[in-house]
Prior knowledge:
Elements: H1 9-18, H2 22-26, H3 32-62, H4 67-73, H5 81-91, H6 100-106, E1 111-116, E2 119-125, H7 132-137, H8 141-145, H9 149-162, H10 164-185, H11 194-211
Antiparallel strand pairs: 1-2
Amino acid sequence: MENGISLGKDEKTKLFKAGNNRSAIAANGLTPASRLCIEMSLSIIGCLTEQKEKVKDSIIKMGAFFEREIRLCTAIKGVTPFLVLAFLADVGDITRFKNVRGFNAYLGVVPTVKSSGGKTQLGHINRQSRKLARTLFTQPLSHMIRSSDMMDAFYNNVKSRRGAGRSRIAVIRKIFNIMRSMILTGEEYRWKDEENYQRKIKEFEKIICEAA
């Protein structure tokens, strides 16, 4: 912007992928000072990204104890071993919830209920509840929606009635409930994309083997 240049989404993506590729950065017609600032920023982002991946791998290695749960839940498109561990970290002992309503309320994926004068009104989700899993599961939401025709139809049905925001929370709630059921019963996800699933499992096994 300092150089009078406005980059679109695709151009920004290419710039980030360029990393410290000086020729790619110079092609944008920047001044030497601006180019230096961008090179330094991209270098810092690259280091942070590398460290983030190392931390993520370490968490997965320490979570190898939950291999059964990981193998079950990663069958859902968009759900990675890291997300399964985040889910389990929030939930704790999954058997302690007497019903689905209490389970969903604990994870903050159900709206608050307000009653007055004999009328019941649904409010926003409870922001004071657990939020790690809910926050992380919003990132691969589009993949989870496309994980099956059932999920896609469910999302669009809720969206047409309740709006985009509540339909996204509804999908996350449904995914959490499916994962809870799978962990409790050992039943496999019926809409599993075998190729996608095997790729995630191979990556998981590779990280675990490196820790051995």
